[in-house]
Design goal:
276 residues; alpha/beta; Rossmann fold; three-stranded parallel β-sheet; three-stranded antiparallel β-sheet; 29% helix; 17% strand
Length: 276
């Protein structure tokens, strides 16, 4: 794709229908792109085949259209990008290594202690592939949260790029696809803030440019948990979409035009320039 000053994206996982939390993320990234005069792309993160729900991707796209969130260009499906991820893994060369550790052995910890970093234990074979991380601080600026800093060697340790079940890991796929699509700006939920340093290090290792990042507040349920498909969040309705869209904009701190709850969502592109 040709270079643009701004190219954003919305990247849902088709493990279920679009819920209100995902709608808020879509609206935030859409507004940021349109106000910058840039492009807004849609990418389906459908790599986790066992969790992918048949028909969910098409329903998500129809839902975005119903809410007036029209994207630019073709939709990219990660399930069709295996060769690109394999090429990136090969490009990383000595930075990656096989790991024989299981989730049970690691106790489901987020931090990896480097058990297989210098070779597999005797009699063990590699199950996953990990990336060696440096013992240094990675700095970036979040457009909502301000300056950020993380040392991956202390926070996560070497992280997985290819899972033990053979599926590509989110961190590798998202970095490769952001680079391939020329993404300049990433607007997403604050739960993904902890992925940013890993993605920045991968971008550096693959020679890819670093996008600008903005992490927006999460929509929480009555128990204080993030709305998600795992917590059985209700899908957003196709009928009455203007009212639901207005609720999403209010959540983001937007000024809502009078009568917006009853009118079609085409007014979304002319709202005052403000984003939480």
């Amino acid at each position: 794709m040709p270079s643009l000053a701004y190219r954003g994206r919305f990247a849902p996982s088709p493990t279920g229908d679009l819920h209100f939390g995902s709608l808020v993320a879509a609206v935030a990234s859409f507004l940021d792109a349109r106000r910058a005069g840039g492009e807004w792309l849609v990418r389906m993160e459908d790599l986790d085949e066992p969790r992918t729900v048949p028909g969910a991707a098409d329903r998500i796209l129809r839902c975005l259209e119903a809410y007036g969130l029209f994207w630019d260009g073709p939709v990219l499906y990660q399930s069709q990008r295996h060769d690109a991820y394999a090429e990136a893994l090969n490009q990383l060369g000595p930075l990656v290594y096989p790991c024989a550790c299981t989730r049970t052995e690691l106790g489901h910890r987020e931090y990896y202690p480097g058990t297989c970093r210098h070779g597999l234990p005797p009699g063990r074979t590699g199950r996953s592939v990990r990336l060696r991380v440096p013992d240094r601080e990675i700095h970036w600026h979040d457009q909502r949260l301000g300056p950020q800093c993380e040392n991956l060697a202390h926070s996560t340790g070497d992280f997985v790029l290819k899972r033990a079940d053979g599926y590509w890991a989110y961190q590798l796929a998202v970095v490769v696809d952001d680079g391939a699509q020329g993404i300049t700006d990433v607007v997403r939920g604050a739960d993904l803030l902890t992925s940013t340093a890993r993605q920045i290090y991968l971008q550096e290792s693959l020679g890819l440019p670093r996008p600008r990042y903005r992490h927006i507040p999460l929509v929480l349920d009555e128990n204080g948990e993030k709305l998600s498909k795992q917590t059985q969040a209700e899908p957003v309705p196709l009928a009455g979409s203007a009212a639901c869209l207005a609720a999403a904009l209010r959540f983001l701190g937007e000024s809502i035009p009078s009568g917006a709850d009853e009118i079609a969502p085409i007014w979304i592109g002319v709202l005052p320039k403000r984003l939480t």
